[in-house]
Design goal:
The strands form 3 sheets. Strands 1, 2, 3, 4, 5, 6, 7, 8, 10, 11, 14 and 17 form a 12-stranded mixed β-sheet that branches. A 5-stranded mixed β-sheet has the order 9-19-18-15-16, with no helix packed on it. The chain folds into 2 domains: 42 residues, Roll (SH3 type barrels), CATH 2.30.30; 205 residues, Fumarylacetoacetate hydrolase, domain 2. Helices cover 8% and strands 39% of the residues. The longest helix is centred in the last third of the chain and has 11 residues. By secondary structure, the protein is mostly beta strands.
């Protein structure tokens, strides 16, 4: 059985414990147990940094295979989410009026500072995995696009071109980093073919597996550590899987409404959050 470590609030204090059935056993409470339904579940960690992997499914790239996608991407791509936007199980995601979508991902919790780590050593620095929802507002992305005069690589002529900008307004919004409900220790789970799903307003919108990943967890962590020192207690995410019936994945969005968003990863649990449209 997977060891599930829960961070929770009970009796006026933040606590950590091991889930056993419908109860959580307080690690510091001399075996004291709490019923899960009676505690407030908190994010499994308060990360020092959140490094997200961008476009790590061959279906999200629009390729026909992982091999084709690797040739297209060449290496893992990254962006940042702010630790201040993290929320936990049961908390509310605020959706902009332009729309929203879930992105089911695996959150990898790094237990110590890492730099230039080789793939064969990556598992030594992972203390656990959790479900991560890289909530995205696709309609906000265009607000970070801009025009500038740049040299066309095809003909060498400087032209006014549209630049897509960075992933900020569509990714870094308050409440856009739900994670949880608990942390699963590495030795207790096999993620090689783990199924990943997301739901919005009760409808299934994503259904895939980790076999879609272009770059595996070891490659992601190793490559990231070549770019920057990964701080202790960082969360690194894997990227998401494809969408059901999405004609063009970058445009796929769902209407902002008062409803529920659910993401789940086989072996890691089910993360449920309410959704509420932003005011104004």
């Amino acid at each position: 059985m997977n060891m599930k470590i829960l961070t929770f609030f009970a009796d006026g204090k933040v606590r950590r414990g091991i889930i056993e059935g419908e109860y959580v056993i307080d690690e510091e409470g001399k075996g004291r147990s709490y019923k899960l339904s009676g505690v407030k579940i908190l994010p499994p960690v308060q990360p020092t940094a959140i490094f997200c992997t961008l476009t790590n499914s061959y279906k999200m790239v629009g390729a026909s295979s992982k091999e084709e996608a690797r040739e297209m991407l060449r290496s893992p791509k990254f962006f940042l989410k702010l630790p201040t936007i993290v929320i936990g199980y049961g908390e509310t995601i605020i959706a902009p009026r332009s729309g929203i979508r879930p992105e089911v991902e695996i959150g990898i919790v790094i237990g110590k500072k890492v730099k230039n780590i080789t793939k064969d050593k990556v598992k030594d620095v992972i203390i656990g995995y959790t479900v991560f929802n890289d909530v995205t507002a696709p309609g906000e992305f265009k607000k970070d696009w801009y025009y500038a005069f740049r040299r066309d690589p095809n003909d060498g002529v400087i032209k006014k071109v549209l630049n897509r900008g960075i992933h900020f307004r569509n990714k870094n919004r308050d409440t856009f980093a739900p994670m949880g409900p608990y942390l699963v220790t590495p030795e207790e789970v096999n993620l090689d073919r783990a199924r990943m799903k997301s739901y919005y307003d009760g409808e299934l919108v994503q259904d895939g597996t980790t076999e879609e990943f272009i770059f595996d967890i070891e490659e992601i962590i190793s490559e990231l550590s070549k770019i920057v020192t990964i701080p202790e207690m960082s969360v690194v995410t894997t990227g998401t899987v494809g969408y059901i019936n999405a004609e063009e994945v970058t445009e796929f969005k769902l209407p902002a409404k008062s409803t529920e968003m659910v993401v789940e990863v086989e072996g890691l649990g089910r993360l449920i959050n309410a959704v509420s449209p932003e005011e104004g």
